[in-house]
From TrEMBL:
<protein>
    <submittedName>
        <fullName>Spore germination protein</fullName>
    </submittedName>
</protein>
<feature type="region of interest" description="Disordered">
    <location>
        <begin position="30"/>
        <end position="55"/>
    </location>
</feature>
<feature type="domain" description="GerMN">
    <location>
        <begin position="92"/>
        <end position="178"/>
    </location>
</feature>
<keyword id="KW-0732">Signal</keyword>
<feature type="signal peptide">
    <location>
        <begin position="1"/>
        <end position="24"/>
    </location>
</feature>
<dbReference type="InterPro" id="IPR019606">
    <property type="entry name" value="GerMN"/>
</dbReference>
<dbReference type="Pfam" id="PF10646">
    <property type="entry name" value="Germane"/>
</dbReference>
Length: 196
């Protein structure tokens, strides 16, 4: 009699533990209600590509004039500049960067720390607005002034839509931007300074 009761209890406890044990195991499954994790940050979603792309660049061949070290004349030099669009204003901005890198044996024409603040082209006149450093850091001399101004003018007038150059200093027109040569009106190229 005791054995029968004992067996009944064991069977009852076994059914109880099996039933609630399986339910309990199922409740530990946390993957059913977990939201999907986002993709890693470095993976681009093909449905939403990044709308910001770098602008394509084009190369433009230009001729620039650099002074000789003894200031006896200007030497033509071919350069290639990269621009986002082929506007002459952008080409001129790149040419001003190139002035800082003269070929071997020639000198950089711009006074130290000169910055091109702005450039506009209208009716064949390129108006260039330069920082005060252009005048403040100019080392002087009539020949040096010729080399600086005509290095710029002769270079810029090689562009098809530039016939002359107007010089501004911090937005103001100066009668003689470097103290000697007349810059009250747009300056045209001086081919007599070019060394053949």
């Amino acid at each position: 009699m005791c054995n029968a009761k004992f067996r009944s209890l064991i069977i009852a406890f076994s059914i109880f533990f099996l039933t609630f044990g399986l339910v309990g195991c199922g409740s530990d499954d946390t993957t059913k209600n977990t939201p999907p994790s986002p993709p890693p940050a470095n993976v681009t979603d093909p449905q939403n590509p990044d709308p910001v792309e770098p602008a394509p660049t084009e190369t433009v061949e230009v001729t620039m004039y650099f002074p000789t070290s003894d200031a006896t004349g200007l030497v033509p030099t071919d350069r290639t500049v990269n621009v986002a669009k082929k506007s002459s204003e952008e080409v001129i901005a790149e040419m001003f960067k190139e002035f800082a890198n003269p070929p071997s044996g020639l000198v950089a024409p711009l006074p130290k720390e000169t910055k091109l603040l702005d450039v506009k082209i209208k009716d064949g006149v390129a108006t260039i607005n330069l920082s005060n450093s252009f005048r403040e850091n100019f080392e002087g001399g009539a020949t040096g002034e010729q080399m600086v101004l005509y290095s710029i003018v002769n270079s810029l007038t090689t562009l098809k839509d530039v016939d002359s150059v107007e010089f501004l200093l911090e937005g103001e027109l100066k009668a003689a931007i470097l103290g000697g040569l007349d810059t009250s009106t747009p300056v045209t190229a001086n081919e007599s300074l070019i060394l053949k």
